[in-house]
Amino acid sequence: MFGKKVILSRLLADEAYKRVNELIDAGVQIFEVVIENVYQIELLRRLISEKRAYFIASGIITERRAIELICVGAKLIVSPIFQPSLIKKCQNYGVSVIATATTPNEAYQAWKSRVPLIKIFPAKDMGGAHYISEILRPMPFLNVIAAGSIKTDEVV
Question: 7 phi and psi, to 5 degrees?
Fold first, then answer.
């Protein structure tokens, strides 16, 4: 699942569809589609059905929206929050989920909920790489990804 990745947000469905196909032709293999309205759900349905790339549904905060996306074929849901009921619903459907945490307690609760990858956001505002190191010091078993304007010169 590794490769070039693009995050799509705030695009109209037709514009996004055209851009996605151009990017696939250029070699992009993974797309994170930030779901902000029903038109983007339809866009995701269309893209997933074509099976030309891997699509991630992002920005999901409710169980209802997660189920909608699972029904269109999403295999990975990204939530900007830690919502235990949403995580459980995704797991019940066999769909992977990445939850977002800001505090060490949220990160630990996500791990206890069997979230395989925890997004720490806003990492930069919380202290950048140093903050991530501080979270991982007592909990090295966490699998985390930093999000929120982390620069490469901040990596420990």
Answer: -105, 125
Cβ atoms of residues 122 and 146 within 8 Å: no
Question: pTM of the full predicted structure?
Answer: 0.82
CA 88 to chain centre: 16
Strand pairing partners for 99?
Answer: 118
Q: 29 is written with which tokens?
A: 């293999």
Q: Is the dihedral of CA 51, 31, 19, 44 positive or negative?
A: positive
Q: Find where tokens 């979270």 sit.
A: 135
Residues making up the chain, counted from first to last: 156
Q: What pLDDT digit, counting tens, does each position of 14-28 carry? A: 778 888 889 999 998
Q: Closest Cα partner for 10 from 19, 23, 21, 1?
A: 19
Instruction: Give pLDDT tens digits for 82-134.
Output: 999 999 999 999 999 999 999 999 999 999 999 999 999 988 888 888 999 99
Q: How far is CA 49 from CA 25, 32, 44, 52, 140, in A?
A: 17, 16, 8, 9, 38
Which residues, in sequence order, are bridge partners of residue 119? 100, 145
